[in-house]
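Appendix B, Record 12. Input sequence as logged:
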Amino acid sequence: MRTSSKFLSIVILTVLFGLSIACTKKPSDDASTKSTASDDTITKDVETKVAADPDTKDSQVTVAAKEGKVTLTGKVKTPVARKKAEQIAKDEPGVTAVDDQTAVEPVPEQAAQPVAPPPPPQPIVVPSGTTLTVRMEQALSSKTSKAGQTFLATTAQPVSVGGRSAIPTGSTVSGTVVSAKAKGKIKGAGELSLALTSITVSGHTYNITTQVLDNTSKGKGKRTAATTGGGAAGGALIGGIAGGGKGAAIGAVVGAGAGLVGGAATGNQQIEIPAESALSFQLSAPLKLPPPGL
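Logged structural output:
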């Protein structure tokens, strides 16, 4: 009898102990299930709000929630987006803490836009018909000069093209005596024809072609000046003639087609061009010069 009672007591205690354990575990399991469900909800809600917000929608944010603590990882576009994502997580119901581990993406350096090089400077073209006024460095005479003889001069006036300086004053010019014929005492005209052949600009020499300045002395005391090689008289002689002396009438510009200046009106005098006299020639072909500075 006692044995039966003892056995029954043991059974009753075992049952009660089992019920006690069951009651103790059930609340814990329910809390765990509830916590997991809450974390999933928090994660989904935060992800949805981050993806929808204008400041964070372009960011790559990963959300993880555990027991109410939210961890944010990934990259955001700007510091403003980072703060906004963190605030969205903090405002979510059930969140107890936020660990923001997101990083702001560095702003890529913009490649420098290639700058188009400036167009190369264009050459200067002195057109045909341009007048070159030069000052003689030596005297010439129909009596002593010979055909083919060269002479030197310098430009007396600058030449500009389109507002750009083309030929500065003082540029060295070379020329040639095209023909020279002494005037006879009784008959025969004196003749002296000149043309320019080259010019030096900024240390470079260029061939040029000009109309021929043709000077003749016919009859007793008559003198004329004209250009040959095309068109009406296109050049002029400026300066002293026979009897005027060196430098006579220097700088006195004579228009196209005008006669020679100075000299005694006698039938026996020659055509002479003193040194420092100024002569005017016209280009009969364009002169191409490089851009300034080249």
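The two ends are 133 Å apart (CA to CA).
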